[in-house]
Design brief:
The structure is a single chain. The protein is of the alpha+beta class. Strands 2-1-4-3 form a four-stranded antiparallel beta sheet. The protein has four helices and four strands, in the order H-E-H-H-E-H-E-E.
Length: about 120
């Protein structure tokens, strides 16, 4: 019962802050170096980001340009979550590479609504 209550609170009553983001995921040898090169190529061009996601991302979301949609704080793995909700990382910019248990990510924050 107690665990069910925690899960319900986490899903329904958790943070109301949201982010809309896309990512490029790579894993394996030299993934970070490859993403560093892509980031230099992307600069501030979201269309370039989406094209590279379609070409290179190992995540199924890559087929749609890396789009992850809207999510709340705590729905992504901690390093990813921390990066996208950090107000020092600007909306409309490519951030990363960020390492998670899935591999290395470049992330494009499309929108962020921080609610205290």
């Amino acid at each position: 019962m107690f665990i069910s209550l925690i899960l319900i609170l986490r899903v329904s009553g958790g943070s109301k802050s949201t982010v809309t983001a896309s990512h490029i995921l790579l894993d394996g040898e030299k993934a970070k170096e490859k993403l560093d090169a892509m980031k230099n190529e992307i600069k501030h061009d979201y269309n370039k980001f989406m094209a590279l996601a379609k070409q290179h991302s190992t995540c199924p979301s890559g087929k749609s340009g890396g789009t992850l949609g809207v999510f709340r704080r705590g729905q992504m793995v901690p390093p990813f979550d921390k990066a996208v909700f950090d107000k020092h990382n600007e909306v409309g910019q490519c951030i990363g590479p960020i390492q998670t248990n899935f591999g290395w990510h470049l992330i494009w924050i499309e929108d962020r609504q921080l609610v205290d």
